[in-house]
Amino acid sequence: MKIAFLGTPDFVQPIRAMLAKHFTLVDSLNKADLAVIAAYGKILSPKELNTPKYGCINIHPSLLPKYRGPSPIQEAILNSDKVSGITIIKMDEEIDHGPIIYQEELELSDRDNFDTLSKKMFLRASEVLPQTINDFIKGKITNRTKS
C-alpha cells in the first residue's frame, strides 16, 4: 500500500512515523493508493481528492461535525470542553466534511493546552490509523453519516 502523507506541524509527525513503519510512503498523490492528511493548510481540489485509488482521508482533532475549520483544538479549550476527540473522514469537496470512518472521544484535562492536546490527539490517531486504513481499504468499514 502506497500512501502520500500531507501534514506539516511537528505534532503530526507521529502519524508520518507510523505510516512509514506500516506502509510505503510516496511523495506525490499521483503515486499513492491513499492519501492521509493531518493539519494541512491547503484545500485539495476535486482532482487531487480523487487522484489516489482510494481517495484521501483526513484526521481531524475534534468530534466532527463539532468545530469544523482551522482551530478545533483551540475552540475546545476556549469552550472548556471536558471531552473532544479525533475523527477520521473520507474527504469530499467540502471542508472537514465527508463520511466518518472512525471517531473516538478523548477526555480533556484542565491542564491541557494547545501543545499537549495536539500531541495527545495525533498520537492517539497514529495508534488507530493502521487498522483503520486496513479496514477501510478492505471495505470493512461502513461509513457513518457525513461529518
Q: Any overview of this molecule?
A:
By secondary structure, the chain is α/β, with parallel strands linked by helices. It has one domain (2-137): Rossmann fold, CATH 3.40.50.170. The protein has helices at residues 13-22, 46-49, 72-78, 114-137; strands at residues 2-6, 24-26, 34-38, 56-60, 83-90, 100-107. Strands 2-1-3-4-5-6 form a six-stranded mixed beta sheet. Helix 1 packs parallel to helix 4. The two termini are 26 Å apart.
Relative strand content: 15-25%
Low-confidence stretches: none
The helix/strand series, from N terminus to C terminus, equals EHEEHEHEEH
Label the structural class: alpha/beta
Total count of helical runs of at least 4 residues: 4
Number of strands: 6
Q: State the assembly state of the protein chains.
A: single chain
Number of domains: 1
Mean pLDDT: 93
Q: How far from one another are the termini?
A: 26 Å
* Fold-level CATH name: Rossmann fold
Shape: globular
The profile of the biggest β sheet is:
6 strands, mixed
Class, according to the CATH hierarchy? Alpha Beta
Percent helix: 25-40%
CATH architecture: 3-Layer(aba) Sandwich
Neighbour order of strands in the largest sheet: 2-1-3-4-5-6
Radius of gyration: 14 Å
* CATH superfamily descriptor: Formyl transferase, N-terminal domain
